[in-house]
């Protein structure tokens, strides 16, 4: 088991390096620091002196990969790649291009609101989807299954924006049960998070239930299920003990994709409900063309997704020991 874990971790390191190089190429080779300076200066006078001053103030005046004017280690460390891209490996995300505030400090202050929003959505959604999907698989072909399938397609066909607007109109304006938007720290956040959590769960039910229903249908007709039924086991025991256990591999495959949004936040919900999380932070950075923040969030999202896949692989080895031998 230890050798398998070490091997999977060693596989991740070159992938992270490749992602870092790709992000750097997208931001610095396609769009040069001079282009960034001109975009940031906007309609102001874009004389070479002003462009150079902007680059020096934001740390973009170094060479890209190799600094021939330095000696020793500084040939590599006094470069844009080392300062702006490689430094993100040890958590140094640099300064914002617009406000010159530390990006790492902003991420740490905004990660709690994002987690308070996304963790309840994730837990409620995955439990509901698995439970309902398993029941529908056991009731395949019945009237309840047909009605549920119609409801799932209907939920998937409606835009999330409609759920947000309808929720704000019904629960906040008409019933006045919760605020329309906003956020407060501490226990007061519960009344602000109730509606976005409810909307987030509702938006995820249609596709999630259909996915897990399909997963369980692939297992429910296998030989071990027929054997369990022939032994006289109850249908609930067959479904929740045998089918659910053997369907964990595809379930664990889907979980890392959802885990990414736990930290990165939900862009739509945070924006419409004025929650100061990482999703709204990213949207504002894109709108203001803050390249440093966008670059940091892209890399952070990539790292979280890769770590989620690594965690998924480790969970595979616990659920099915044959994975370690493959």
Please explain how this structure is put together.
The protein is globular and about 80 Å long. The protein is mainly alpha-helical and 326 residues long. It folds into two domains: 2-90, no CATH class; 103-325, MetI-like fold (Orthogonal Bundle). The two termini are 12 Å apart. It has helices spanning 2-29, 33-41, 48-58, 74-77, 80-85, 103-138, 143-157, 160-174, 189-220, 223-230, 235-246, 248-264, 267-272, 278-287, 291-319, 322-325. It contains 16 helices and no strands. The longest helix is centred in the middle third of the chain and has 36 residues, at 103-138. Helix 6 packs antiparallel against helix 12.
Task: Give the % helix.
Answer: over 70%
Low-pLDDT residue spans: none
N-end to C-end Cα span: 12 Å
The dominant shape is globular
Tell me the name of the CATH class of the largest domain.
Answer: Mainly Alpha
Report the β-strand fraction as a percent range: under 5%
- Residue-averaged pLDDT, rounded? 82
The count of β-strands is: 0
The major β-sheet equals: none
Could you please say which CATH topology of the largest domain applies here?
A: MetI-like fold
- Give the CATH superfamily of the largest domain: MetI-like
Total number of helical segments?
A: 16
Structural class: mainly alpha
Number of domains: 2
The SSE order reads HHHHHHHHHHHHHHHH
CATH architecture of the largest domain: Orthogonal Bundle
User: C-alpha Rg, in Å?
Assistant: 25 Å
């Amino acid at each position: 088991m230890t050798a398998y874990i070490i091997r999977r971790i060693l596989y991740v390191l070159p992938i992270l390096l490749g992602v870092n190089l790709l992000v750097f190429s997208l931001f610095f080779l396609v769009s040069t620091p001079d282009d960034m300076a001109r975009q940031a200066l906007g309609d102001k006078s874009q004389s070479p002196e002003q462009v150079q001053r902007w680059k020096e103030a934001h740390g973009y005046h170094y060479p890209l990969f190799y600094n021939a004017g330095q000696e020793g280690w500084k040939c590599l460390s006094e470069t844009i790649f080392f300062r702006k891209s490689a430094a993100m490996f040890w958590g140094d995300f640099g300064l914002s291009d617009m406000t010159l505030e530390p990006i790492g400090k902003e991420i740490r202050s905004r990660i709690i609101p994002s987690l308070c929003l996304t963790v309840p959505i994730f837990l409620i959604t995955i439990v509901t989807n698995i439970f309902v999907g398993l029941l529908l698989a056991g009731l395949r072909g019945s009237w309840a299954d047909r009605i549920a399938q119609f409801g799932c397609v209907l939920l998937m066909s409606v835009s999330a924006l409609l759920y947000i607007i309808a929720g704000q109109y019904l629960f906040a304006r008409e019933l006045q049960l919760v605020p329309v938007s906003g956020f407060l720290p501490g226990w007061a956040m519960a009344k602000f998070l109730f509606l976005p959590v409810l909307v987030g769960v509702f938006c995820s039910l249609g596709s999630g239930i259909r996915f897990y229903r399909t997963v369980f249908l692939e297992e429910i007709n296998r030989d071990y299920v027929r054997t369990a039924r022939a032994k006289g086991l109850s249908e609930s025991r067959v479904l929740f003990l045998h089918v659910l256990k053997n369907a964990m591999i595809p379930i664990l495959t889907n979980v890392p994709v959802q885990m990414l949004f736990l930290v990165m936040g939900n862009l739509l919900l945070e924006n419409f409900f004025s929650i100061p999380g990482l999703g709204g932070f990213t949207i504002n950075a894109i709108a203001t063309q803050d390249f440093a923040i966008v670059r940091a969030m892209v890399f952070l999202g990539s790292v979280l997704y890769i770590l989620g896949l690594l965690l998924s692989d480790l969970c595979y080895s616990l659920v099915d020991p044959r994975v370690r031998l493959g």
